[in-house]
Amino acid sequence: MKILHVTPYFKPSWEAGGPARSVYEISKSQINAGHEVTVFTTDGFKKRLNVLTNQAVDVEGITTYYFRNLSMYLSSELNLPIPYKLPFKCSLIKEFDVIHIHEHRTLLAILVYYYAKHYNIPYVVQPRGSAMATTKSTQKKIFDKFFGRSIIDNSKCIIASSKNESKQYPLVFPEFNKNVEYIPNGINKNEYGANIKKGNFRNKFNISSNKKIILYLSRLHERKGIDLLIKSFKKLNCENCILVIAGPDDHYKNKVIKLVKELELVKEVIIPGPLYEIDKIEAYTDADIFVLPSKDYYESFGNVVIEAMACETPVITTKFCGVSEWLNSDISRVINYDLYELIDNLHDLLNNPISKSPREFVFNNFDWDKIAETTTNLYIRIK
Fold first, then answer.
1. Of 167, 264, 317, 344, which sees the most CB atoms within 10 A?
2. Alpha-carbon distance 131 to 151, whole Å?
3. Would you place residue 89 in the very low, low, confident or very high pLDDT band (cuts 50, 70, 90)?
4. Mean pLDDT, the chain, whole residue set
């Protein structure tokens, strides 16, 4: 099968968050299964990538077109990628059997939708948490009026990673009646095996072995609930605990630093910046607890939760995170967005080990090869 994935950002733009990683993993698994996979994307999110642009590039067998952004300021500050040379390659769309559009409110999605409709190529849409118009609501509403609703209505189906995410669709698109398929995000078992040596992250940041590490690792964004985590850490009053807040800044780092100073936690909180690849896995491995305390349903899934679990780290997440629907109390804690619930569960996990292996649970339920196979079977059904 010839498959086209359309995504605003792709490897190695990991600072763009989970969607870039997810599209890469699905594409790689589909290549390994014998399919021909192409990706239309742009040449960077926060910074311009050092890649060939506007022509086919081989990325581990994935034919990838990094279309040059008109302005990196628009991409990095407004999340508005404008791949101005994409129209010259749109005739390629007629060669594909199916198209998978990720994050549909983009110029890429508009152009691909137009030519998919023109050439009668079936496509599916996976908003990946971007459906709600709660941020940049005016721009999103204008986009939906002219393009977004048509992209959704003409798709064969919508893919949601959780029921939390799918609840957003009728709120954004009145009279929404598209078929919704539920497919979670996944994990690459080869990257999260048991061969990472414990202590590497501690050594890099001079954290002694008798200190418990509470880890947050995701974008530094207001919606992630980082302020709740910092306040709960203060009230936890754990003398042998260190709080690590890692991740790329998404217009919130200064507020995090200010709150840490106000609560007099400078010596107990480490803010190392973004961590990728092996550095990220080492952080998960050395952490005693991982926390993702997102404050609203904007968190459609939360890949970092299963990444931490794949490193045998117990997790706490809120009910707002889509991944919470797939978890159970044997390997995690799912809480309300509440200060004292978070404190109680931090205290519980610091003193009582969980009963089953988080890694085993994740490997059995979130393997990317299985998820890619489910996704490909969906393509076959809609053709």
1. 317
2. 12
3. very high
4. 92
Scanning the chain, the segments in alpha helix (DSSP H) are 18-32, 72-78, 107-119, 137-143, 149-153, 163-166, 168-172, 200-204, 226-236, 253-262, 277-286, 303-310, 339-351, 358-365, 368-382
Integer Cα distance of 154 and 74 in angstroms: 28
* Cα 332 from chain centre: 19
* Residue found under tokens 């706490």: 316
Tokens 């926390």 found at? 291
Peptide bond connecting 87 to the previous residue in cis, omega within 30 degrees of 0: no
Asked if residue 284 lies in contact with residue 313, where contact means CB atoms within 8 angstroms, the answer is yes
pTM of the model: 0.82
Q: How far apart are CA 16 and CA 110, in angstroms?
A: 20
Sort strands 62-67 and 56-59 into parallel, antiparallel or unpaired. antiparallel
Q: What angle do CA 223, 224, 227 make, to 5 degrees?
A: 95
With 0-12 / 13-18 / 19 or more C-beta atoms within 10 angstroms meaning exposed / middle / buried, residue 138 is exposed
Q: Is the CB of residue 2 less than 8 Å from the CB of residue 96?
A: yes
Each residue of 149-171: pLDDT tens digit? 899 889 999 999 888 888 878 77
Number of Cβ atoms within 10 Å of the Cβ of 36:
16
Query: What is the C-alpha separation between 22 and 319, in angstroms, rounded?
Result: 22
User: Quick check: helix, strand or coil at residue 263?
Assistant: coil
Tokens of 314: 């117990």
As given in the structure block, the two tokens for residue 8 are 């605003």
Tell me which amino acid residue 360 is.
Answer: E
